Amino acid sequence: MLEIRNLSVYHDKDLTPLISDLSFTLRAGDRAALIGEEGNGKSTLLRLLAGQDVPYVTCEGQVLVTGARGYLPQELPACEREKSAYEYFADSPVFFDQTPRELAGLAREMGLPQDVFYSAQTLSRFSGGERVKLQMARILMEKPALLLLDEPTNDLDLASVRWLQDFLCRCGIPTVFVSHDEVLLGRAANVIILLERLRRRQMPRASVWRTDYATFVRTRSSGMAHQEQVARKEREEFDAKLRRYEDIRRKVERDQNAISRQDPAGGRLLKKKMHAVMSMGRRFERERDGLTEMPESEEAIFAKLTCEAQPAGKVVIDASLPQLCAGGRVLCRDVRLQVRAGEKVLITGRNGVGKSTLLRALWEGLRARGDLRVFYMPQDPCDLLDLTRTPVELLSITGEKEETTRNRVALGSMKFTPEEMEHPAASLSGGQKAKLMFLMMAQRQPDVLLLDEPTRNLSPLSGPVVRALFADYPGCIVAVSHDRLFAQAVFSRVVELAEDGIHDSTDFGI
């Protein structure tokens, strides 16, 4: 069981409030989806619930957990990446209690080789999806009483996403998870915890909805629409009364200015009237404070992606690779891919087959071409971003004052606060780094986008905007994604990468 009582969290650097007065209880069978815009403290909250040290925040309140906690971080810590698979599992106090039958069953369920637990291969040389599976395997060995999962579908192949979805629904373990995958949210979550930061991101608000995701979206949307309707009607009626009051006040003022000094009785009467009018004004101010508030919500705003039109039918990518290798392993052979101008191609395939390796190879082959502008977004933006620089500095091309002003406005449209614009990029959330890369895309107006899991750290509240952004983009896209709604909305062609090359497919994973 998990119980949170009046939890508030503040950022140490500038005392920015992240979470305020959050309380809820989870019991067996509860699967709570933690959602909210990027930078709202979702990963921070999961780390706190996991009992991890979070050096940049201060907390108030209580977190009560009964039993062991199983925590899956968004990224495997660097200190774990250089361990071999055997060393990683040997660090678990229960690993040597597992029987060969139990280990074989767990490997089979996770879609891993049966000897993987004793492998000398370092975790850094496994694919991103394989690393997620290995972490989940160790968590399940320890039989946790509470699961805390930060973007568990990141990098998982479609078969593994389906397995995770089914597992969460049948395991009965209280779970708190963060996910951008709206299909997973719709099929697994039965509690929604919404973290918001309103009023220029200075006022945190947390709400708990004991319902499924579809009902949450529908109820929240209709509730906000009704609140807005009531608030507008009240303001219209209040403004009409206020206009009548202003007419009365101005008339009394005119009468006071026009009255003769030879009419002291009339002056005293008007003075009383003015006192009554001023009293009425104070009542109006109190009434204004009592009006129904206009609903506040966070909307994800993304820059429009444009590019110059390419000749129809132009072959922009014509790749022929005898083999793809990573970490000394041959992942697949005889890879051929041809993409024409305006095509949007989704690459699928099992974990470890080389999808990210293929995108990097395409990037290396295209980046030097003079007839194309190509933008590559890796799985981890840290691979391309200098995280010691601020978002404003990373967007800077000329360094001119006018450009800096434009960049600040663009970052503000993405809900970056002035403080976040000046923090080193290393302190940004994964979703904020993705938004920063979207702004860089918009600046460069590329003809070809190579995208490796572009939605992996974004809030599901951003989902419709992101899907429209890439669906409307007129250029060519080649992407790896396991976001099922994103895949279905954006791509016209699906291919599967396998050990023997690329094959046409129709599986969007829904």
Overview of this protein structure:
The chain is an alpha/beta fold. The chain has three domains: 2-220, 3-Layer(aba) Sandwich (Rossmann fold); 224-289; 315-505, Rossmann fold. The chain contains 16 helices and 17 strands. It has helices at 42-49, 78-81, 85-90, 100-110, 128-141, 158-171, 182-188, 213-258, 264-289, 355-366, 391-395, 401-413, 418-422, 430-444, 463-471, 484-490; strands at 2-11, 17-26, 31-35, 57-65, 69-72, 146-150, 175-178, 191-198, 203-209, 315-326, 329-340, 344-348, 374-377, 448-452, 476-480, 493-498, 501-505. Strands 5-6-7-3-8-9 form a six-stranded mixed sheet, with helices on both faces. A six-stranded mixed sheet has the order 13-14-15-12-16-17, with helices on both faces. Helix 8 packs antiparallel against helix 9 (264-289). The two termini are 32 Å apart.
Write a brief structural summary.
The chain is about 40% helix and about 25% strand. With about 500 residues, it is an alpha/beta fold. The protein starts with a strand and ends in a 5-residue tail after the last strand.
Brief descriptors of the model:
510 residues; alpha/beta; Rossmann fold; globular
Largest β sheet strand count, sense and barrel closure: 6 strands, mixed
- What is the CA–CA distance across the termini? 32 Å
Structural class: alpha/beta
Strands across the major sheet, in which order?
5-6-7-3-8-9
Strands, total number: 17
For this structure, what is the CATH class of the largest domain?
Answer: Alpha Beta
* Total of helices: 16
State the domain count: 3
| CATH architecture assignment name of the largest domain | 3-Layer(aba) Sandwich
**Ranges with pLDDT <50 over ≥5 residues?**
none
* Backbone CA Rg: 28 Å
CATH topology of the largest domain: Rossmann fold
Assembly category = single chain
Anisotropy-based shape: globular
Instruction: Classify the beta-strand content into a percent band.
Output: 15-25%
Helix content percent band? 25-40%
- The CATH superfamily of the largest domain is known as P-loop containing nucleotide triphosphate hydrolases
**What does the average pLDDT come to?**
85
